[in-house]
């Protein structure tokens, strides 16, 4: 019996599989049908959005049908000719049923009897998903008690509250708060900065979704949009990461090594503040300056504090501009987030500070750096944040020469991603770039295609951008939804210490995804020769393919928000 799983997770402790309130909406499809040959977005599609799927089945006729919950055919179409999925080493065919926009539960069937997982046409499941994708961050909060209502069985008392040793000294500093980075409990400034920036951008660009003050986080109902409350939880921690004397920002706070698979309150080794870095300082400056603008109307004191902190951190980063980047001290082995080049972070900070202050001194740095082709929306490459932010300035604050350089990049720089997608049956923008965190890259390339869409008349930019959502949710060669708890066959064994410790799977977490680099012992022993698009293991030990991370959720949150507003 095939079932569409709908997990409305508002009341999270009720939604674990097998529990009484776990809802099974409809029995759909033919018992025994093979569902691994049809790769489809397992959540489904917004009513008015394009709708596609991919078929691996061989020796079938061109016909496919869409069935409704009563097993009646509601749509018939023809599959495309065979096309390459080069990074999975197979040929596939594609189906398109975008014209079907009647709400309901459906499945696809091809001529040999293979069927897809059931999916939904409609908007509601996307709203559930979007909330969980945000609340993943709430459930990663450090330094406060998380109750059962918020966190289900990964509820825990306040963790990591002791002061941290400043590396190489006998001084200790309070740096409690913030989000646990990922499957580990480290807190890293460059990672947090991009995650916060994504939330702030989602708020700015999709207000109709994000004025919501009732998502169900601890601050819901306080008259401040929940997405801003959530971002501020991280920003408040980041402020503590700044050194009062120099204005520089400590790169990270972690223990010296990763803990075992324990809940966070049991990671009790000494916390250490790793040395200050220029990338952390500049990324901090950028996001604090950005925050100073956005929070001005909700919290004046915070806004002013953030701006002062941003200026000081920027000055520090400038003074230490060419320091070579952060490297782990020899006795610290937690995430390094090493990045020898701070020019893009400095560029981003200069733009945000100019936007916040109108001080023309910052324009000199912008002029110098804007034409250098710096792009990216990830923890190490942040140039696109700078470009987007500059373009959002009012016309009288913009310089035409800077604008034309940025426009040039927006128009042309991402089209190779479009070409990659069109050459791949799954329409993945990754090309061969199945790196650690490839799901983040897919979402971030999609965001860049959405920018390019504004400067190009080719409708493929937008279409391919949103098709990455389908890639993440099941239209991939692994036939899996990379978002925990969403879909019929989703990643259910993430490298996430609270999950391993309790067995409770937090819904709405985006896992890293295929990584052709084969960078952990688990995949190296179980599938060392995997082709890049298939180099994924739903195994808690495969941290290089199946970990979760705050800054993998936030690009997905941004992209989902865009899709939901576009097709609402
Ligand atoms: O940039 C190169 C690229 O040029 C090359 O083609 C490609 C081939 O594999 O590698 C790219 O570098 C990779 C780099 O990420 C940038 O994507 C490295 O191989 C890869 O090892 C590195 O992985 C990082 C990983 O930490 C290991 O340092 C991930 O980006 C980063 O997201 C991840 O972050 C960890 C934290 O350290 C600790 N907390 C969990 C978090 C998520 O796994
Ligand atoms: O659990 C750690 C994860 O959060 C990191 O991303 C990853 C890479 O730095 O390391 C994981 O920890 C592993 C360590 O690197 C090697 N020994 C096994 C650890 C747990 O699987
Ligand atoms: Zn903690």
Largest sheet: 5 strands, mixed
Average pLDDT reading: 95
The number of distinct helices, counting runs of at least 4 residues, comes to: 18
- What is the CATH class designation of the domain at 126-413? Mainly Alpha
Mass-distribution shape: globular
Structural class: alpha+beta
Bound ligand species: ligand G3I, ligand 9MR, zinc ion
* Proportion of beta-strand residues: 5-15%
Which CATH-level-2 architecture of the domain at 126-413? Alpha/alpha barrel
Which residues form runs of ≥5 with pLDDT under 50?
A: 6-25
Distance between the termini: 32 Å
According to DSSP, the number of beta strands is 18
Relative helix content: 25-40%
Structural Rg: 23 Å
CATH topology of the domain at 126-413: Glycosyltransferase
Strand order of the largest sheet: 4-11-10-6-7
